[in-house]
Amino acid sequence: MSYKILLMGPQGSGKGTQAEKLSERLGIPAFGMGQLLRDEIASGSDLGLKFSGILKAGELVSDEDAAEMLKRRLAKSDTQNGYILDGYPRNMSQYEAFNFDIPTHVLVIDVPRAESLKRLGGRLTCRGCGKVASIHDGLKVGDLCPCGSAWYQREDDTPEAITRRLEIYEHDTMPVVENYGKLVAHVDGLGSIEEVFARLLTALE
Ligand SMILES: [Zn+2]
User: Fold this and answer.
1) Which pLDDT score is estimated for 119?
2) How high is the pLDDT of residue 154?
3) Exactly one of 4, 15, 21, 119 is catalytic; which is it?
4) pTM for the full model?
5) What pLDDT, on a 0 to 100 scale, did the predictor assign at position 118?
6) How far is the CA of 144 from the centre of ligand 1 (A)?
7) Is 59 annotated as a binding residue?
8) pLDDT of residue 156
9) Edge-to-edge order in the sheet of strand 82-86
10) What does the DSSP assignment read for 35-85?
11) Which end of the chain is more exposed for a tag (fewer CB within 10 A), N or C?
């Protein structure tokens, strides 16, 4: 059985964590486009050099180039039993560019907007090492990370910025989910990491 999983969900749905857990359980790699982009640049490939130039110029990588990067990644031998793609395609333009492979499952972690706001609104980032924590862990702005630097709240973690991103998700990504039709399984994203993970595994059966 080969699993080609697209894992979708709004920010704060915990899909990055779940992608890693699925990867471990199923023995297939998990990746997001941001990570692939960094890897491609670090590799010094023709595409990586192109991306490096585009980003240095403050421009955006085109959907076609991003899709080409993904195509190359999916041609590597570690994906022969499948892969987990975290948060792609996130709009219809990317959906159309992703025309070289068909997923077996599209798993959508649903989290109500109020819950996403609560989770993300309490997010703290370390100025030193970039690690992320939460005020729900009993930490506050100015407390020190184990690395010795202070926690702060990023500007894009304000309620307004979070709401805007959640609206973009609903507006741009939900049409993609609809297009995948029967491949889609919605999973309740409320509860513990283990509870959500168990629901994802059930959805794969
Ligand atoms: Zn730190």
Assistant:
1) 85
2) 87
3) 15
4) 0.86
5) 87
6) 8
7) yes
8) 82
9) 30-32, 82-86, 3-8, 105-110, 184-188
10) HHHHHHHHHT-HHHHHHHHHHHTT-PPPHHHHHHHHHHHHTSGGGTTEEEE
11) C
| DSSP type of residue 150 | B
Per-domain residue ranges of the chain = 3-112+161-204
Set 72, 90, 113, 118: catalytic member: 90
Concerning whether 154 is annotated as a catalytic residue, the answer is: yes
- To the question of domain 3-112+161-204 being in CATH 1.10.101.10, the answer is no
Q: Is 73 a catalytic residue?
A: no
Q: Where are the alpha helices (DSSP H) in 75-205?
A: 92-97, 113-121, 159-168, 174-179, 193-204
Residue 35 in marked binding region: no
Known binder of ligand: residue 124?
Answer: no
pLDDT of residue 94: 98
Interval 91-122: pLDDT, tens: 999 999 999 999 999 999 999 998 998 888 88
Considering the candidates 25, 127, 131, 154, report the single residue annotated as catalytic.
154
- 16 carries a ligand binding annotation: yes
For the chain, which residues score pLDDT lower than 50?
A: none
pLDDT of residue 167: 95
Residue 125 CA, ligand 1 centroid: distance in Å: 8
Q: How far is ligand 1, taken at its centre, from the CA of residue 45, in Å?
A: 32
Q: Cβ neighbours of residue 185 under 8 Å, at least 6 residues apart?
A: 105, 106, 107, 108, 203
